[in-house]
Amino acid sequence: MNIQLAQLLYQAINFLIVLGALSYLLYKPILKIFAERSKRIEEGQKAAQNALQEQEKIEELKKSSKTKIEKEREKILKEATISAKEQAAEIIAAATKQAENEISRLKQQWKTQQQKDRAAMEAQLVELVLATTTKVLGSQLSNKDHHALIAKELQSIATA
Question: What is the pLDDT of residues 26-57, one digit of tens each?
């Protein structure tokens, strides 16, 4: 077994040629495929992470808008309640004022009617007193005596 240098050199050159060819034809394309695959995986992970972040942002927006809507609803409800109370107070005040005006009008009407009735009764009383006086005395009194007698009778009725 001799080691032949030419054969060894020839084998080394063949090995380097096969190594270069395999490196050029297989190793670099495979590395390129792995790099592209790694890049796609990384991009997919970034996209997934971005999607998760977007989903979190959407959830935050949902929560904030829900909170905002809830606050707005409470505000509107509070304003509506206050407005309803104010309107109720205004309606009650208007009804009270209208009732007071009606009571005042009825009192005034009653007083007017009472005065009319009193005047009619006084006139009737005057006639009765004059008729009674004429029958009792047998003659009519003077105008001055009539007034004095009527005033006296009215005063006695008013104090009674």
Answer: 888 899 999 999 999 999 999 999 999 999 99
